[in-house]
Amino acid sequence: MKLQRLYSLTRQAIDYYHLIEDGDHIAVGISGGKDSLTLLYALQGLKQFYPKQFELSAITVDLGFGDFDLSPVKELCERFSVPYTIVSTEIGKILFDTREESNPCALCAKLRKGALNEAAIKLGCNKIAYAHHREDLIETMLLSLIYEGRFYAFSPSTYLDRTGLTVIRPMIYVKEADVIGFKNKYNLPVCKNPCPVDGHTKREYVKKLTKTLERENPGVKDRLFHAIVDGNIEGWPEILSKPTTEVIKES
């Protein structure tokens, strides 16, 4: 995927769901993975020509596993002139040493989000951008169906009333395959996830299931995606001009 295509898909989501307004200060959550670095590229580029003025800060929550070199991410942020903050925590120690969690993902996510929100507030941000892409949206819906028995997927924007922050997800129209292509084309400085359960979760199971469904039923991911965006899911914002299938479908 070329940079211009990334800008186009990201801007569509921002415009359709009104994710950015004049004067926003957006904290970009940077895990060090391909998705969050692609999001940083997208927002930093859009900032140069988007009609609404906004500021960016980048934040990484370090879980404290050790051997997590973030210097390449720091260099990228410096090149983009985006302030970068690393929040040091002991979340890894709490999960695996103190509590010895066998299924740590939910608690880890809660602790990470808490640390990220706190850092964003200290920096004066009013929004946090997550790098969830199209497959993340589909997988979340399937996880909800399989394990909770309900049709649900995260919203393009979510207001957190306890903090006053709004979470936005500008990459929901971007395919994971295109993120991978973008990472390779632009040599993104990806940092390996140090979590010991990475790749051994329910989400990883659903990711593999989705690939199998697509292989056996070509086009199923497109249909699942549109079932979500057209599904009137509770908590999703209304859009003034709904995009057509042709507009948001990847080429």
From TrEMBL:
Is Amino-acid biosynthesis one of the keywords UniProt gives this record? no
Q: Which SUPFAM superfamilies match?
A: Adenine nucleotide alpha hydrolases-like
Under the heading CDD domains, the entry gives: TtcA-like
Residues covered by the tRNA(Ile)-lysidine/2-thiocytidine synthase N-terminal domain: 26-193
**The organism's place on the tree of life at top rank:** Bacteria
Q: Which is an annotated Pfam family here?
A: ATP_bind_3
Keyword Transferase among UniProt keywords: yes
Keywords assigned by UniProt, alphabetized? Transferase
Listed name of the protein? tRNA 2-thiocytidine(32) synthetase TtcA
Species of the source: Hungatella hominis
